[in-house]
């Protein structure tokens, strides 16, 4: 048995079918989960929002990355601020609840809340996201 190389995996995807067929080689699974980005002005704000989201089981994990520089257009001018970046993992079905919570607890008039779907991931980690967040379809 040979070790799969990127080239072989790509060939497998082209000749066998969709990415899910090739992904199973590495124990990856498709998922109904997503990564969310939120920026905050301070670590205290990020920690407060993260704690609330975790307590409500709206997210499974929050990484707070300090010291990013955000440059953006606001009210007709180019602005620049030092911010914290929150990277959160959750269910796609909880996006609206997360966005509402962030808006209610964030000092910005227009907080950044961006969702990127997790197309695939390590099965045990993907399962953990599901176990760590509330299921909006279940009676909890």
Account of the protein in words:
By secondary structure, the chain is α+β, with helices and mostly antiparallel strands. The protein has one domain: Alpha-Beta Plaits (2-Layer Sandwich). The protein is 36% helix and 34% strand. The chain is built from five helices and six strands; from the N terminus they run ααββαββαββα. A four-stranded antiparallel β-sheet has the order 3-4-2-5. A hairpin with a 2-residue loop joins strand 3 and strand 4. Helix 3 packs across helix 4. The chain is globular and about 45 Å long. The N terminus is likely disordered.
In short:
The protein contains 5 helices and 6 strands. The chain has helices spanning 6-16, 19-23, 43-55, 95-105, 123-132, and strands at 28-30, 33-40, 61-74, 77-91, 114-117, 120-122. Strands 3-4-2-5 form a 4-stranded antiparallel β-sheet. The chain has a two-stranded antiparallel ribbon with strand order 1-6.
């Amino acid at each position: 048995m040979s070790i799969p190389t990127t080239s072989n995996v790509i060939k497998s995807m082209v000749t066998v079918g969709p990415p899910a067929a090739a992904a199973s080689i590495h124990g990856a699974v498709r998922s109904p989960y997503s990564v969310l980005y939120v920026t905050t002005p301070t670590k205290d704000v990020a920690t407060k929002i993260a704690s609330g989201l975790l307590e409500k089981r709206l997210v499974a994990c929050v990484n707070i990355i300090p010291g990013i520089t955000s440059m953006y257009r606001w009210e007709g001018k180019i602005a620049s601020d030092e911010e914290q970046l929150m990277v959160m993992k959750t269910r796609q079905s909880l996006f609206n609840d997360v966005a509402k919570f962030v808006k209610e607890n964030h000092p910005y008039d227009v907080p950044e809340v961006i969702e990127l779907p997790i197309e695939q991931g390590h099965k045990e980690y993907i399962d953990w996201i599901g176990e760590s967040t509330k299921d909006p379809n279940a009676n909890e």
